[in-house]
Design goal:
binds guanosine-5'-diphosphate; binds magnesium ion; elongated; 2 domains; alpha/beta; Rossmann fold
Length: 332
């Protein structure tokens, strides 16, 4: 990753100036350096990188800002509700109102820039938004841009096979990739008949035993039964299968309707498998943003995709930090 600061173009535009950074923090630092700590940032937006990074889909942050005296303000990064929530109280009160767990709230507080004076509620919202996006980017850095060998792991019944069926359908029908599905057992029977039938329907080859000699496809999916990492024998067998499959996209699949404490426990239980990110299912039953941010801030792991509902192929999307930040602010 190129850590060189971006050249920020400062095009005056109705009193507004444009600043750019690789991260929200970097863009805001440029704003403050030029316009002072009281500068008003009116928009924070993630855009495709203008440099060579564009070739592999790199993104950068654009911040439009104006000097403090200017009006009016179009604060898009932090919604009006969030600004009203903490009229004078600044950062700590605002963080409390987000409903995060204590570890995540502490991490967020520590990520806020030090300031000699109490920020206004508007500044606090912007700093908070920047800190949240920066935490998401850090947690998501292991998630591949383009996944070729995809394996979903996790406890039984979280929705791995349904999500695999959705993803498989999108790759086959929308993106026209040739896919293969590996439905392996480990030492636990993998009851994924519906997934196998679905793959058959799409004309996707399904393999029930590991065979490294097969020609590679542009997308390969590994469906494993769920297991509990406290069972060492099963875990060792699964680790062995994963070593052979060599996923470039290993996602811990969790039911987002579970309680925050259980989700955190499951993240801890599977951390030895070093998942690149999360796939959150059951968004139709619960899309509480606070528990997602608990994982991002407290465990440094971010969702790559979400799956909502049992019907295939509906409700499967790649996700990022911005919508989850908006949902968190919208809850206040
Ligand atoms: N409401 C809802 N049900 C789901 C969702 N994903 C999976 N299910 C249901 O959860 C159960 C377990 O799903 P499955 O994919 O077999 O779980 P796996 O054991 O992790 O592979 C099935 O009854 C699915 O229909 C979802 O996003 N929302
Ligand atoms: Mg399954």
């Amino acid at each position: 990753m190129n850590s060189r600061p971006l050249d920020h173009s400062r095009t005056p535009h109705g009193g507004l100036m444009l600043f750019k950074g690789h991260t929200a923090e970097e863009a805001l630092a440029q704003v403050h350096e030029t316009l002072g700590p009281a500068a008003i940032v009116v928009q924070l937006k993630r855009v495709p990188s203008a440099g060579v990074g564009r070739i592999w889909g790199a993104m950068e942050i654009e911040a439009w800002a104006q000097a403090p005296a200017a009006t009016p303000t179009l604060l898009k990064a932090a919604p009006a509700k969030a600004r009203r929530a903490a009229p004078e109280s600044g950062t700590s009160e605002l963080i409390k109102s987000l409903g995060l767990g204590s570890t995540a709230a502490r991490a967020l507080q520590q990520a806020m820039p030090p300031s000699a004076s109490e920020p206004t509620s508007q500044e606090a919202c912007l700093q908070l938004g920047a800190a949240l996006l920066a935490a998401w980017d850090k947690a998501a850095r292991r998630i591949p841009k383009a996944a070729r060998r995809i394996a979903l792991i996790g406890p039984a019944g979280t929705g791995k096979s349904v999500a695999t069926a959705k993803w498989l359908t999108i790759e086959t029908l929308r993106h026209q990739h040739d896919c293969r599905l590996w439905c392996l057992d480990g030492i636990v029977a993998n009851t994924a008949e519906f997934l196998i039938q679905h793959a058959d329907l799409l004309g996707i080859p399904v393999e029930a035993t590991w065979n490294p000699g097969l020609p590679s496809c542009s997308r390969e999916f590994l469906d494993l039964p769920g297991w509990s990492p406290s069972d060492r024998d099963v875990s060792d067998r699964m680790a062995n299968l994963l070593d052979r499959f060599e996923p470039d996209c290993l996602l811990l699949t969790l039911n987002a309707a579970y309680e925050p404490g259980l989700l955190q426990e499951q993240v801890r239980a599977f951390e030895d498998f070093k998942p690149h990110g999360l796939l959150l299912t059951h968004l139709d039953e619960s899309a509480s943003p606070a528990k997602v941010w608990d994982l991002v801030l407290g465990h440094c792991i971010a969702p790559m995709a979400t799956s909502s509902g049992r019907f295939i192929p509906g409700g499967f999307e790649r996700t990022g930090g911005e919508p989850w930040m908006e949902r968190l602010f919208a809850q206040i």
